[in-house]
């Protein structure tokens, strides 16, 4: 194993380099959520089906999740700064393609390309931080800043989207990244170090193929199962994904230079932190999607107004992401994570009290508590994962951290969004408006039997269908009911997660005190 780098406190050059790394990190977070407020305009222009609309939203996260492990290991082998710069060029090109997409299929393809490019950026930025900050306390703060910028990008996506949509077409939201790409391409060679593992072997193509064949079918099974139920297609995809996952793990155990170093899981905090990140981000992904839908379609706000209402939750997240690493210097990280997750659980549970329009203050306050938990978990969870790995495996550890976070957000949108839509349809039926559940059209029309097509599938479709006021009011209350049901279920799950975090991370020492032994 290559020797660990000497512990040297970072100076101004490293902190300025961190600012450079923060730009693509924020951009990646922005691209996760910037489409939430653009979806209504996009739907009117491209007329996607409800299934296509979900793919437009979450194919970006799914592609990132499928390729992060590969790209993290590739950065360790070929150079983390080099991979970062290649990824930035690809990200810029895909952003332009998405901005000028002329069909739903073209936009889905462009979003998938953005996900591939994004998979090169995330582990590269995080692993470079591990190279630049070898002092434990400085590294914890630097990772806190990194996590803050990613989460802040997610939080500011709706606001940035709202500002652009007031003046420009929906595709303008994708062009936000072009200035960032240019700035980082100029600054990276001047301020960022290059790092590659000198002892790394060749990238194993079989492992790359097995990782994709494991992750993508499992993702599809979750997505299809959430929308259509457990049918033959769901079972086949889940079975195939599980089989390839077993083959992938077995192969990694036999290789001298594996794509994923399974020895990382020997550190208890590593696996526990990954689990906390995954479950917490599922709840956050679902809440973000449903809250932005609520502010626009239930409360009737413009994209800009809805984005402004997202500012208080963004501030709560920012405070938690910066404050949690500092607090963890005095208090055990497990206690900090558990406490903030408990606050997040309260936020989710408060959604259950939302019963229709006129609840903006309650929705925003609840979401602020959810985001408080996100800030702390993203910062401390990422530090626990990356800090458990030796320097030459930082890219692989960073990739695992980002894989579970991206996968959590995408699964949250797909599964919790589908659950909310199912509650929406059931609520309309209970209100005396029978729906043709499962139909998938570009536009919904009121019929004598009730609602049909997209109007029956979601509130977005009902708004686009220009329904009578009484029918539209019933649809808004049905959407609020869906938010409440999802919030109650997620709140219970996150409360259980808080207890699990307290138990599994209780032995992790405060940051800067003697750490558990690292894997080799």
What would a concise description of this structure say?
The chain has helices spanning 12-33, 35-46, 50-78, 80-99, 104-132, 136-165, 177-191, 205-228, 232-254, 268-298, 303-309, 311-327, 333-350, 360-387, 394-430, 454-457, 459-464, 469-504, and strands at residues 446-447, 450-451. It has 520 residues and is mainly alpha-helical.
Computed over alpha carbons, the radius of gyration is: 22 Å
What class would the helix/strand composition place it in?
mainly alpha
- Tell me, briefly, the overall form: globular
Give the strand tally.
Answer: 2
Mean pLDDT, all residues: 79
The helical percent reads over 70%
Distance between the termini: 7 Å
SSE layout and pairings?
Layout: H1 12-33, H2 35-46, H3 50-78, H4 80-99, H5 104-132, H6 136-165, H7 177-191, H8 205-228, H9 232-254, H10 268-298, H11 303-309, H12 311-327, H13 333-350, H14 360-387, H15 394-430, E1 446-447, E2 450-451, H16 454-457, H17 459-464, H18 469-504
Antiparallel strand pairs: 1-2
Helix pairs in contact: 1-5, 1-6, 1-7, 2-6, 3-4, 3-5, 3-8, 3-15, 4-5, 4-7, 5-6, 5-15, 6-11, 6-12, 6-14, 8-9, 8-15, 10-14, 10-15, 10-18, 12-13, 12-14, 13-14, 13-18, 14-15, 15-18
């Amino acid at each position: 194993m290559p020797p660990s780098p000497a512990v040297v406190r970072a100076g101004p050059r490293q902190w300025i380099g961190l600012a450079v790394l923060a730009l693509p990190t924020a951009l990646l977070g922005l691209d996760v959520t910037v489409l939430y407020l653009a979806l209504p305009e996009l739907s009117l222009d491209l007329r996607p089906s409800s299934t296509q609309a979900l793919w437009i939203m979450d194919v970006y996260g799914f592609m990132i999740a499928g390729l992060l492990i590969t790209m993290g290991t590739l950065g360790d082998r070929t150079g983390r700064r080099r991979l970062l710069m290649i990824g930035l060029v690809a990200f810029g090109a895909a952003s332009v393609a998405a901005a000028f997409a002329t069909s739903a299929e073209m936009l889905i393809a462009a979003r998938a390309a953005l996900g591939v490019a994004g998979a090169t950026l995330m582990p590269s930025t995080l692993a470079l931080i591990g190279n630049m900050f070898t002092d434990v306390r400085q590294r914890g703060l630097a990772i806190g800043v990194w996590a803050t910028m990613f989460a802040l990008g997610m939080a500011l996506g709706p606001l940035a989207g709202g500002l652009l949509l007031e003046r420009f077409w929906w595709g303008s939201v994708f062009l936000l990244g072009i200035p960032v790409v240019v700035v980082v391409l100029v600054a990276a060679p001047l301020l960022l170090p290059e790092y590659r593992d000198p002892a790394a072997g060749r990238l194993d193509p079989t492992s790359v193929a097995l990782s994709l064949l494991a992750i993508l079918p499992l993702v599809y099974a979750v997505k299809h199962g959430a929308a259509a139920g457990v049918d033959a297609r769901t079972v086949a995809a889940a079975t195939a994904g599980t089989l390839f996952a077993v083959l992938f793990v077995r192969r990694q155990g036999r290789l001298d230079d594996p794509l994923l170093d399974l020895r990382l899981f020997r550190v208890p905090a590593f696996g526990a932190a990954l689990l906390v990140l995954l479950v917490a981000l599922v709840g956050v992904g679902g809440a973000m999607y449903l809250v932005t839908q609520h502010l626009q379609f239930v409360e009737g706000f413009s994209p800009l107004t809805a984005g402004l209402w997202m500012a208080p939750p963004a501030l709560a997240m920012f405070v938690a992401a910066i404050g949690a690493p500092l607090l963890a210097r005095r208090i055990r990280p497990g206690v900090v994570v558990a406490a903030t997750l408990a606050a997040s659980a309260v936020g989710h549970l408060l959604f259950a009290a939302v019963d229709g329009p006129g609840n903006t203050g309650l929705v925003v306050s609840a979401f602020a508590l959810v985001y408080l938990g996100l800030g702390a978990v993203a910062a401390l969870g990422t530090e626990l994962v990356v800090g458990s790995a030796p320097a030459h495996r930082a890219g692989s550890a960073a990739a695992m951290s980002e894989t579970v976070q991206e996968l959590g957000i995408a699964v949250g949108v797909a599964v919790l969004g589908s659950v909310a839509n199912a509650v929406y349809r059931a609520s309309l039926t209970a209100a005396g408006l029978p729906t043709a559940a499962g139909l998938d059209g570009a536009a919904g029309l009121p019929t004598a039997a009730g609602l049909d097509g997209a109007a029956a599938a979601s509130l977005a479709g009902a708004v686009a269908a220009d329904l009578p006021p009484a029918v539209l009011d019933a649809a808004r209350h049905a959407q609020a009911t869906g938010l409440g049901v999802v919030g109650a279920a997620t709140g219970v799950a996150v409360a259980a997660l808080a207890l699990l975090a307290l138990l599994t991370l209780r032995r992790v020492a405060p940051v800067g005190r003697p750490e558990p032994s690292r894997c080799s």
